[in-house]
Amino acid sequence: VWRFHATMTGSILNRIAAGALSVGSVFFVAWLAAASFGPEAYATFSGLMASPIGLLIWFGVTLAAAYHLTAGVRHLIWDAGSSLSPKAATSLTWLSLWGALVIAVGFWGILFATGKVTL
Asked: What is the model's pTM?
């Protein structure tokens, strides 16, 4: 009997995270290009990326990177032959999902708390 389960969700989200990181790399290249085109271009780009929409984009890229990292660690554990039972695999998948969220929120929390980023 087939049914949808957590490890399927983790696999799908890992692929979505990889795609989001590909899109995020375009923003990173745009940042480098703006820096190379001079102070005016950099100020314009920085202003756009410091807007609420820009910060949401960067948070999404951070979340995608954090999840891709935690899912990679999950796969390393599985490749070592550990946590392959259905219950353990499901638990490890949920840990990777929640761990990524904690990493991303913690990172941005530190950025806001130190004043590096403001709204």
From this structure: 0.91
Contact between 89 and 7 (Cβ < 8 Å): yes
Structure tokens, 103: 């990493």
Nearest in space to 27 (alpha carbons), one of 67, 58, 4: 58
Radius of gyration from C-alpha coordinates of the chain: 18
Instruction: Please report, as a single letter, which amino acid is at residue 68.
Output: H
Please say whether the beta carbons of 43 and 89 come within 8 A. Answer: no
Please give the average pLDDT of every successive group of 10 residues along the chain, which has 119 residues.
88 96 96 96 96 96 98 97 95 97 98 94
Give me the helices (H) in 37-119, please.
39-49, 52-79, 86-113
| Number of CB atoms found within 10 A of residue 42's CB | 16
Tell me, rounded to whole angstroms, the distance of Cα 112 from its chain centroid.
18
Q: What is the DSSP letter of 118?
A: -
